[in-house]
Design goal:
The complex is a heterotetramer, with two copies of chain A and two copies of chain B. Chain A contains three helices and five strands; from the N terminus they run E-H-E-H-H-E-E-E. By secondary structure, chain A is an alpha+beta fold. Chain B is built from three helices and ten strands. The chains are: A alpha+beta, B alpha+beta.
Chain lengths: 82, 167, 167, 82
């Protein structure tokens, strides 16, 4: 199993009701697989996940990426700083 | 201030802070003995959105803002600010100092929220373009978000850029 | 700050001063409730001219500067700064506030000597271009001169622009 | 006669050795005529006058301009501020 830390920001943080979540994931799970799991476990963020940006260890990542061991995974909407 | 392996003598500042943005201090920090020009961009909280001179606001958008509330994914935002600075140096090799600062927390109208400053020996070396590029990129890839609070409620300002692989 | 008949609510600052240029204060003075963006140019005294990134300096020009000494034809310079501000507003009608400041007297390396700042609701309204235009025009028509004092002697910096009739 | 005030700046001020000069000029003298007179009376600025910028009452003026009554006339090299 793979221990990962999820970090939520902005609208997704509000919908999740938490800033972070520690999860145990199967080895070799992809981002796509993670999204499926979150959609099932947290139906309130299912819509948000369709347009979510994902980062693995602070770099933007995409559906096909395999989640490395002990990854820090960010989930957030498109940025709006400035 | 960070030490940059590729540009060991060129100051690069990036910061996410709850403190006031001090333009005088930041400019001094990125001014070298060889510096003759600086272009600085600052963004401020708009208290009212009117149609005058705006290319984004339409008639129906006119409204008052009480304050904006900013949040950031701080360690990643710092890394992405460094990336923006590296991109600037790759495009404009005359750039001497770079400062990229985002203020976060609850920010009221007329308050500067963000600063991008670039210095060079002369003004015709790309300093203006570099500062413009810096704020454009910050708004694309640096993980910061803002929520607007107004008399009619609160809503998250929506970004639209989706970073590409490796960005 | 002056009252402008054509733009009664838009702050226009121009000043020739021996005092330090305070970017924070000037920016605050040209920030309205509707302002969301500012582009600021500052020029500084170069202590050393090197070839890196310079389009003007050639190998033979490398030298040290001890200080610059500025003088101005003050009442005319103020009128011409106002003209530069009017020209900016005529070209970019989204511009809200304008500040044009020249510091005079004996100024040492790394010191900001001149500032042009323009504000607007958004950054895509011409603020960068307006600030660039402002410094270009100041260097053409505003009667200010500088003498460079270096270890090898002193010499006047030569301008080259000859204003046209009515300019 | 026309009382005018001449103001010198930068290199021309240094060559003249003074910041200003009050002069009595014939009525209807042009800028060109003024330059001729200054060249004759102050040979040390004759060279400078070839590339001088002239202002009448704080507006740029040219050789053919007739100097108005009680004018304030600026004489200086191309500007170099910033």
């Amino acid at each position: 199993m793979n221990h990962v830390k999820l970090l939520f920001f902005a609208t997704i943080r509000e919908r999740m009701g938490t800033k972070s979540l520690d999860l145990e994931l199967p080895a070799d799970l992809t981002i796509h697989g993670l999204k499926d799991r979150l959609s099932a476990d947290y139906p309130k963020v299912k819509e948000s996940l369709k347009s979510v940006l994902i980062t693995i260890n602070r770099e933007y990542a995409f559906d096909e990426a395999i989640i490395p061991l002990n990854a820090e995974i960010g989930l957030f909407p498109p940025v709006s700083g400035g | 201030m960070t030490f940059n392996m590729q540009h060991p003598n060129l100051p690069t500042i990036f910061s996410i802070t709850e403190d006031e943005i001090d333009l005088n201090d930041l400019l001094a920090q990125i001014t070298l003995a060889s510096t003759g020009a600086a272009a600085i961009f600052t963004g401020m909280v708009r208290g009212e959105t009117s149609r005058r001179g705006s290319t984004q606001a339409n008639a129906g958008d006119e409204h008052q803002t009480e304050f904006l509330e900013y949040e950031a994914y701080i360690p990643m935002a710092e890394e992405k600010m460094k990336q923006v600075a590296d991109e600037i140096r790759a495009r404009w090799d005359a750039i001497e100092g770079i400062a990229i600062v985002q203020r976060i927390g609850k920010l009221y109208p007329k308050t500067p929220t963000v600063l991008i400053a670039c210095t060079a020996a002369h003004r015709d070396t790309g300093v203006f373009e570099a500062a413009r590029y810096g704020i454009d990129r910050l708004k694309e890839i640096v993980p910061i978000w803002k929520k607007e609070v107004s008399p009619s409620g609160e809503f998250w300002v929506e970004g639209e850029y989706v970073p590409k692989a490796g960005e």
